[in-house]
Design goal:
Layout (H helix, E strand, L loop, with lengths): L1 E7 L4 E9 L2 E10 L5 H14 L11 E4 L10 E3 L2 H9 L8 H14 L4 E5 L10 H4 L5 H4 L10 H14 L3 H8 L1 H4 L10 E6 L5 E6 L2 E5 L22 H9 L3 H10 L2 H6 L5 H9 L3 H25 L4 E5 H6 L1 H8 L11 H6 L6 E2 L8 E4 L4 H15 L9
Helix pairs in contact: 1-3, 2-3, 6-7, 6-17, 12-13, 13-15
């Protein structure tokens, strides 16, 4: 089975084509487009290139297309990308304006150009379907809750990959298999002792998730991807009263306040230098006080959320770092783990410094009770696998409401 993973960003379109022979994923090719304003022409160009390069005999040979959809109203999980998905994307368009319209256009375009291909949406919120109500609701009026305002969580594919891969590295096949079957069968029982993972997805967009026996128990992101940790230019957590106060004192409209928070906040807003953590770190090393503040706030927020999940799970066996910052910033990893020896967390400085870009590695000391790992992100692989499982086990077209 040939599965195409379509990643439609706010201004980009990236793709990977997999051969899923008996479920074992083999990537055939990848590519992408930047500064995208319309996705349909890019899809046309991509399909022509896949045929010209010999990866497909024709567009009809494509058997499935997977979409990393972000947020749907009253809908989550791994489901067929049909009219129910399009309605769900439209229902939360105001919450995810940079992504939901893009995925809606992509789904419609593939439906027209590859009508024989099964279209499957894997929502970023899917990994958090089983989070307890007490950990997923805000203390807001019922009328607000009825609108669907609650903590959803994102980066689900990335955290799911960490859950599976960390279990494999520790020889916990029972947990790894539970993760593989999660969207098909829901949470099941594991045979061995608890496996508790603090998963730190740190990149242009960042989040921390607590995972017990392969199932998320909570995450730092909430109703939208704007919450949780400070990110490249997203503010992260913010007291709700700050917005009306700033609007009154600065004479801002609500739309302008939203624009500033989503485009001028985060690392950019704190540092005044850049929204790229590498630039911020370099400026901090040169003595820029605002850059040092930005770096410190990010580290403090990571430790805050990881500490919260450590307490809620009663401990941890693994701390994992993934995504661009998590995989490549040894100094940040060391700062996050500093002073935690009494909790069984002991980093090996030599191992930590030796991890190269894109490499997997164990960076904890031999006598560390908690294993500290670097696990490169592979969201596209997760999507390809889940699309294959969905198509194989769900032959009829159907969407599942939450």
């Amino acid at each position: 089975m040939k599965v195409l993973v379509a990643n439609l960003g706010s201004t980009s379109f990236k793709y990977r084509l997999f051969d899923m022979s008996e479920g074992a994923a083999s990537m055939l090719t990848s590519g992408g487009f930047e500064r995208v304003t319309e996705y349909t022409p890019c899809i046309d160009e991509m399909l022509a290139k896949l045929v010209d390069d010999g990866h497909l005999a024709s567009a009809d040979e494509l058997e499935a297309v997977g979409f990393k959809t972000v947020l749907g109203k009253d809908l989550s999980g791994c489901v067929d990308a049909d009219e129910h998905v399009l309605a769900a994307l439209d229902g939360f368009q105001e919450v995810a304006p940079a992504h939901n319209p893009a995925y809606a256009e992509g789904i419609r375009s593939f439906a027209e150009r590859c009508p024989r291909a099964r279209r499957v949406a894997l929502f970023e919120t899917a990994f958090y379907q089983w989070v307890a109500p007490a950990a997923s609701h805000y203390a807001i009026p019922k009328a607000w809750r009825d609108l669907g305002i609650r903590r959803y969580g994102f980066h689900g594919a990335s955290h799911k990959f960490v859950a599976e891969r960390s279990a494999e590295l520790l020889g916990r096949d029972d947990v790894a298999e539970r993760v593989r079957q999660l969207y098909l069968r829901g949470p099941g029982e594991c045979d061995g002792p608890p496996l508790r993972v603090l998963s730190c997805h740190l990149g242009g967009s960042s989040s921390v998730t607590g995972i017990r026996d392969g199932v998320a128990i909570g995450t730092s992101m909430g109703f939208s991807p704007q919450s949780g940790l400070p990110q490249n230019n997203r503010v992260g957590d913010l007291d709700a009263m700050a917005i009306p106060y700033a609007c009154k004192m600065l004479g801002l409209t609500l739309d302008e306040a939203e624009r500033q928070l989503t485009r001028k906040g985060g690392l950019l807003g704190l540092s005044g230098v850049s929204n790229d953590a590498r630039d911020v770190r370099a400026a901090a090393a040169e003595g820029n006080a605002d850059a040092r503040l930005a770096h410190g706030v990010l580290i403090d927020s990571i430790r805050h959320w990881a500490g919260s999940f450590h307490f809620r799970m009663g401990g941890a066996e693994v701390i994992s770092f993934t995504a661009g910052i998590g995989e490549n910033d040894a100094e940040l990893r060391a700062a996050v783990c500093a002073g935690l020896e009494d909790l069984g967390v002991k980093l090996d400085p030599t191992r930590n410094a030796a991890v190269t870009r894109g490499a997997e590695g164990l960076i904890s000391a031999d006598d560390s009770a908690v294993k500290i790992m670097v696990i490169p992100a592979n969201e596209e692989l997760v999507i390809a696998r889940e699309v294959f499982r969905h198509v194989t086990h769900q032959p009829s077209l159907s969407s599942q409401s939450t």
